[in-house]
Amino acid sequence: MTGPLLRAENLRKDYKLSRGQKLRALDNVSFDVMPGEVLGLVGESGCGKSTLGRCLLRLTELSSGRITFDGQDISFLSERALRPLRRQIQMVFQDSYASLNPRRRIADLIAEPLCVHRDKNGCKRSGPAIQARLAELMNLVGLPVSALTRYPHEFSGGQRQRINIARALALAPQLVIADEPVSALDVSVQAQIVNLFTDLREQLGLTYVFIAHDLAVVRQISTRVAVMYLGAVVELGDTDTVLHTPAHPYTVALISAVPEPVIRHAASRTLLHGDVPSPISPPSGCRFHTRCPHAETLCSAKAPDLHLLSDGRLVACHFPLMENL
Amino acid sequence: MTQTDPVPCAASAPPGPWRTAIRALSVNRSAMAAFATLLFITIACLMAPFYAHDIAHTDPFTSNVAGSFMLHGQEIDIMQPNDNPLHLGLSPAGPTWHASAYLLGADSQGRDVAARLLYGGRNSLMISFSAALLCITMAATVGILAGFFGGFVDLILSRLMDIMWAVPVYLFAISLSIVTISQGLKIGPFTIESDNLLIPVVIIALVYVPYAARPIRGRVMALRNAEFVTAAKSLGVPRWRILVLDILPNVSNTLVVLTPLLTALALLAESALSFLSIGVQAPAASWGTIIQDGEGLIYTRPMVALAPGLAIVMVVLALNIFGDGLRDALDVRETSRKNA
């Protein structure tokens, strides 16, 4: 068995606020991403999913913790030392328009990584080689080659996201971090882009970290799911296991919050009360105890560790919902 | 492969952002009218020597109080007795409204005001446009450095700009002018004589640097956090390349929009300095110096001061209207929405 492609250990990210306050955006986040898998990161707005995505790419500096990519510790490498690794890890952003420079043609945008990085032999790529690669990429993401001479504002959201994907794939990376790549798109276009991600993974043997707040999207694309709440992972396991038989009360609430066209089990719906606590002063003990329907005195006193259940998933709860096991 | 929605396909070669902007500008009537006005005034001023030598046959730089000129076959003295009952004192000839001689009359030294207006316009426009270009270059350097690098660089540059901006612009310009006009300007081995037109150019450019640097810095700071810059970073694009390819092209429209506005401000400042005799130095003319010449004649020969005054108003107004048009035309999203 090969090691994980990406390993995150005890990632912590604090934002310093005024008057000595700290906002803990990530708290002890650890997980592995195995080659070829799709890890879905889900959670409500503000739970730290995007911060986590940006930290994995070192676009945001970590406060502490360790990120290992392919056996190499990248958590505190300098930007220069990181540059060769940039070709291995790429990112697709949520806002397909904002992530493309409006003043450059699509060809220049997609060719940018090819111009910046040398090829396998350490040579600068020639014009014809870049042209050939551009045509190949356009074909891969399902856009006509004629689109290359156009500007970003001439495309629809879905097409722009294809352009972003083409740019991310230009250097044939091993890992793609997709930060809510479909959230800003129409539902019909969402399906196309999710299918494109799936097809590309099969064709190119990619590994994804797929950030989303839409469980339907995550269910469709991921092989494993990590559920985040208030900067921490509360449940991590195979997609089917986690989404069909959730063990953490927060996962249960998250799943039952998905609107359903047909109400099948209205009685079992779990509704959370109150707001998400402020990450500036998180609750003591288990961070979910203030809203948890099963909370007991232990929960407010001691924070539960992420521990392994018998079915192979990890859960951070003192009283995982055993009836689901 | 999944199906794709059709790519919007019209002309074979899609227009670039600059060409789109020019197209949007060319259908903006007020901006085009302003541009035509500017073009007309500029060309007229550039033709000053031609007008003086070949049409008006005067030398607008030497005084001519004893001379006379021909109009409709009659000889008319340049200096005429006043039409008060006692015919006390002399007044220069009033406007003849004939391009061949003293179209706008003579000034107190008997010089052709129309010819001086054109020569003065040449200086005023040249100084204000050069000052605007110099100013925008300095402001862009300061604004881009401060906005892009942030931190310590930003702290130093921004505080410097704040200090400069805290001094009233005209007071600052007047103080600098008085010093340089009396002593000339020595920069290392180079000495600029006090009657050199570079002096007002440099002074005017300098005092407006904070005015232009601030919006540029703001734009660069917004761009630095733009998602496409983050995307470029995640692709491993080096910092200088991000600056040149992602930041610069997106600030360039701010620079282009600021230039006509700065030209207008520079023209006003130049006129003010020249009016106070600390800008363009005699015998050279500028619209400001002509207004000063006309100040004493304001009751008898108002045209001497009025003509350059109106010229300044027209140019400043036209520059502002043109600048507004440019700003509208250069908004990439705005124009793309209109086309859609």
Automatic annotation (TrEMBL), chain A:
Signal peptide: none annotated. Pfam families: ABC_tran, oligo_HPY. It is a peripheral membrane protein. The keyword rRNA-binding does not apply. CDD domains: ABC_NikE_OppD_transporters. One of its GO terms (molecular function) is ATP binding. InterPro entries: AAA+_ATPase (IPR003593), ABC_transp_ATP-bind (IPR050319), ABC_transporter-like_ATP-bd (IPR003439), ABC_transporter-like_CS (IPR017871), Oligopep_ABC_C (IPR013563), P-loop_NTPase (IPR027417). It comes from the Bacteria. PROSITE patterns: ABC_TRANSPORTER_1, ABC_TRANSPORTER_2. GO terms for biological process: peptide transport; transmembrane transport. Belongs to the ABC transporter superfamily. Transmembrane segments: none annotated. It comes from Acetobacter oeni. GO terms for cellular component: plasma membrane. It is found in: Cell inner membrane. This is ABC transporter ATP-binding protein. Keywords: ATP-binding, Nucleotide-binding, Transport. The keyword Transit peptide does not apply. Residues 6-255 form the ABC transporter domain.
